[in-house]
Amino acid sequence: MANSITSTGHVDHLEKLMPHESIINDEGEHVVLPQHRHHFETAEQQREAGSFGMWLFLLTEIMFFGGLFFAYLLYRNWYYPAFAVASNQLNVPEGAANTAILITSGFFMALGVWAAEVRKKKLLVLMLVFTTIFGVAFLGVKADEYHEKYEKHHIPGASFSTSMFTNPPVNPKTGKPDELPLAPDMAQHTEIFFFLYFAMTGMHAFHMIIGIVLLFWLTWRAHRGEFSSGYVAPIENFGLYWHFVDIVWLFLFPLLYLINRHPIH
Q: Considering the entire predicted model, what is its pTM?
């Protein structure tokens, strides 16, 4: 009798969970998703837990980048002349190009999430590939920017040079320097600006590299059809991550590139 009751109760439990753990295939049949983990009562609970975990992770990322933003604003307030002149050395056209590139990649990622939700496998793979291409393009432009800083000796360290700030070059069009020379002690603080510039943009680029690696993995899984049966949580959560990376850059670009875009006289 005990075995019968246990067996019946187990069957009732499975029947109760089945509608929540399964999806309906093209033939109208309930199919249990193989991605369902045993420690979750339902597939919906698993999806919500994964989404909640991703939002918690993004919250820690916001606090991390928030600390960098705070440090930048604090030092900029302390050494305003040095930060203003140093920011004028950044390449605005390349920064604007990277902004357009990331916005476009975010658009393709949003389409990819939609394609996964409506179970369009080929479109999903295509959108993930486009997102990857634009992500790589962003890193290419950023590498060119870093190379320019290397040529100008604006990488913090032993080779950092303040000569451009103490003796500004003459503009051939006007015959005058675009900037007033900084005092040597203030010019030394331009290194702090470039340290924060490389720290902030470097960490952002590092997150981009992680995202691109994950995109290759997700594209491979999408090509296998793993996200064509209703299981879209990995695509949705990665979409949140990618859009967060986009948003961080939308703050970095004006903060680093666009403030004080005029000669300091």
A: 0.79
